[in-house]
Structure prediction request, 269 residues.
Amino acid sequence: MPIPFSQVDAFTSEAFAGNPAAVCLLPSPRDAEWMQKVACEMNLSETAFLVKRPEAAGGEGGFDLRWFTPAVEVALCGHATLASAHALWEGGHVPRGQVATFHTKSGRLTAERRGDWIELNFPATIAEPAEPPPGLLDALGVRALYVGKSRFDYLVEVESEAAVRSMQPNFTALRALPVRGVIVTAAATAAGCDFVSRFFAPGSGIDEDPVTGSAHCCLTPYWSQKLGKTEFVARQLSARGGLLKLRLDGDRVRLGGQAVTVLRGELLV
Prediction:
């Protein structure tokens, strides 16, 4: 039976910007090897696989959700979750006024419509001060003001937005390091934006991710402590670029973004 999928540009209001994700709505669970092959075929930074849960009396239905890069399965992904919620509402699988609920390797996640925006409710991930692995800063080509590590990634603060924009990392060297991903960030210089970032994950099959929701689960509490506030506008400075509205809510991060569907199709295998 053909399996419907869509490709959605997330964290953008315009097609061909933000971060593209494929969203596959499966009639029943499939094995990880098959999902990994599909993600490799899609060749996007993430492919999301959804399976609807049965509605249980007094319980919560929603969808089981897993995320795969072309190379590996990941435990948390923001843009493909945003893309999944957008695809479910647009396809009529979830009523537009209803919260979309996902059951994942990072626990229960939700998405709500806020006008033209979608707000995700994700766990905050705290970066503790850490020594960078040997060769990390040389591979990035930056001078660090701060280095920390969350349970997923390294976080590196540099001196300026210009330094983030001008980075030309050595991806071959980064790929050899024992890290999932590296977030590089700085205070923003443009009015109306609080901080900027870029995200590199060659070890996970993605040299540079266009817009990374999971990275902002770390960036939000980090900048909250530095700036003494809980609400932010952030921009990721990849070639495609993306804009996020963020709010620290206790041990959760509210990630706001927009999304645009760019194509629909069917998997035939």
Observations:
- The chain has two domains: 3-119+256-267, 128-250.
